[in-house]
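Changelog entry: the Cytochrome P450 record was regenerated in this release. Current contents:
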Amino acid sequence: MSSNLAGFHAPIRYGRTLTYALFDLCLHPEYLEPLRQEIHDNCTEEDGLVSDADLLLLDSFLKESSRLNGSETISLRRKALKNFNFSDGAHITAGDSVCVPLRAMGRDPAHFNDAHTFDGFRFAPKPGARRGIKYTENSPLYPYWGYGKESCPGRFYAAVAIKTTLVYMLRNYDFKLADETAPRTFSWRTTIIPRSSTKLLIRRREV
Ligand code: HEM
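Regenerated structure tokens:
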């Protein structure tokens, strides 16, 4: 296992994913009430931790936030061991590196209805269905955690850690962006990074 990779990418990815989810909660306040209701219905007062099976709306919200705000524009990278022809005619030779364009795929109308619109409960179970598409679920159409045998082994831990923080924030604080129109990110190479200048106003909730 690449312990170096886990060491440096885990906290960075965790931090960015959480930051983007908080931005989305500020930009789409209509989700606050149903998310808080779900937390109220599924978590006890002392319960810091979240069972991954509960909180399906929060799970969907996080997945949708990550669909539109993936902190990396590309997902898995692979090096070709031999020459290969793709079905669309593209050709790579042994030694070439290939990347999957995660951000573009997440916004592709061929794969997502109304792809550029934030729909926080897009992945939640639909009425009559037993389950939705979970945040940690890997799919070739949404390779957020990579794909195949090298897909991220830390995703279950990451999902619970991010949800636990969001539950704490939603329960205890009201928050809003000081300026919704100010730029919130910048890009560096293939990465989209939150700006340190973005101000989030946070106030303890009166409950
Ligand atoms: C939001 C948080 C995270 C995201 C978005 C993320 C995403 C990814 C992606 C896209 C890959 C490449 C997979 C591939 O090439 O198919 C990967 C690999 C990996 N991740 Fe994460 N990750 C996250 C958090 C974590 C955490 C918390 C840990 C460990 C505690 C972790 C450990 C690893 C390791 C060890 C690999 C390399 C796996 C291998 O090469 O076999 N990740 N991750």
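Residues 1-2, 5-6, 9-10, 13-14, 17, 75-76, 145-147, 150-154, 157-158 surround protoporphyrin IX containing FE (CB under 6 Å).
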